[in-house]
Amino acid sequence: MKPFDVYPINHINIVKGQGSLVWDDKGQEYLDLYGGHAVISIGHTHPHYVKRLEDQLHQLGFYSNSIEIPIQLELAEKLGKVSGKEDYQLFLCNSGAEANENALKLASFYNGKKKVIAFRKAFHGRTSLAVAVTDNPKILAPVNQTDNVIFLPWKDETALEQAFADNEISSVIIEGIQGVGGIQVAPENFLQKIRSLCDQYNAVFIADSVQCGYGRTGKFYSHDFAGVNADIYTMAKGMGNGFPIGGISISPKIKPVYYMLGTTFGGNHLACAAGLAVLEIMEQDNLMQNAAEIGGYLIEELKKFEQVKEVRGRGLMIGIDLPDTLAHVKAELLFKYHIFTGEAKPNVIRLLPALNLTKTHADRFLEAFSQAIKTAPVAEFNPSM
Ligand SMILES: Cc1ncc(COP(=O)(O)O)c(C=O)c1O
């Protein structure tokens, strides 16, 4: 048997990590400004994280949700506190798509309606409802096609108002900053408009915080910049620093009914230990503040390069929009300067590093970037990798 080949990959075998650095099997060091799709939030192999997982594994790795799981209550309490939504309720699952799937379903249970508003270029995951609200026909199988989803242009308030007019909308799902869509920040007034229309029509505001949440922007949820609350926040990625855990934070106005949601693995002991370790480090080391400071510094410095078309983002979620002539820079950063970054089509470099990125590492990137944009493309750096 061999793996089902669904991704083009970089032919690099990373075998070790520490903080924002990783090493391949040949001993080559890399600066990791990607965190494996924005997952590494407190740095690779953080000692507190390793110890907490190790200790939990020696105690009990797993039992299902048919018993009391005190560490789940501990995680919910801590998450409520760190996220500033103490009266919200937590449902745990295992991934971002699952979080969105559960959020959309819960919204529909709540108001009995079927239609969902999503936005152009949105990415919400690959399970059936999550992929149905994702604006990418290439990943939508025929079985996932539905008339229940309305895609609206990004930032278009008039289209939003019109879509609500027949009062059939169950929920609106929106990333606070579109990630796969190219680091597009949702304007504050647009999020406020969604809030007021959801209130007016008893629809559910779902804030997809899978990539842009968990402190990455300097606030716990990037939607918080708008000063309004969503009804459901979905999260995953940074939540477990690599241990698969996702969740939804649910407004107190939505009441649980037995069996409306459920999961075998979600909220197990080991996953909760990982989630707690992340929040403890975030709190103890002021990681949201660091994300705001180092991210702000990077954004300001990147704006000084005149070859860059646009720098977008907040905190440590940064998009560097490059012209076609600099399409090779991402590959060059990896293969010549040994720096992992992400990308969005066509030519956006995405920075999604750990929230404890240091200024020294930020400067190391800026120096490499300034060199990389000066050089012409070299054939050996294959950008399709
Ligand atoms: C905004 C957003 N939502 C949902 C998902 C899906 O998360 P997962 O891959 O954990 O299912 C992603 C993944 O990239 C994402 O960026």
What does this structure look like?
The protein has helices spanning 35-38, 47-59, 70-83, 96-111, 128-132, 157-164, 188-200, 269-284, 287-303, 329-335, 359-372; strands at 14-18, 21-24, 29-32, 89-93, 115-119, 149-152, 169-175, 177-178, 184-185, 204-208, 232-235, 246-250, 310-314, 317-321, 339-340, 342-344, 348-351. The chain has 385 residues and is α/β, with parallel strands linked by helices. It has two domains: 14-45 and 286-372, Aspartate Aminotransferase, domain 1, CATH 3.90.1150; 47-284, Type I PLP-dependent aspartate aminotransferase-like (Major domain) (Aspartate Aminotransferase, domain 2). Strands 4-12-11-10-7-5-6 form a seven-stranded mixed sheet, with helices on both faces. A four-stranded mixed sheet has the order 1-2-3-15. Strands 13-14-17-16 form a four-stranded antiparallel sheet, with helices on one face. Residues 381-385 have low confidence and may be disordered. Pyridoxal-5'-phosphate binds at residues 37, 95-97, 100, 123-125, 175, 179-180, 208, 210-211, 236. Pyridoxal-5'-phosphate is lined by residues 37, 95-97, 100, 123-125, 175, 179-180, 208, 210-211, 236.
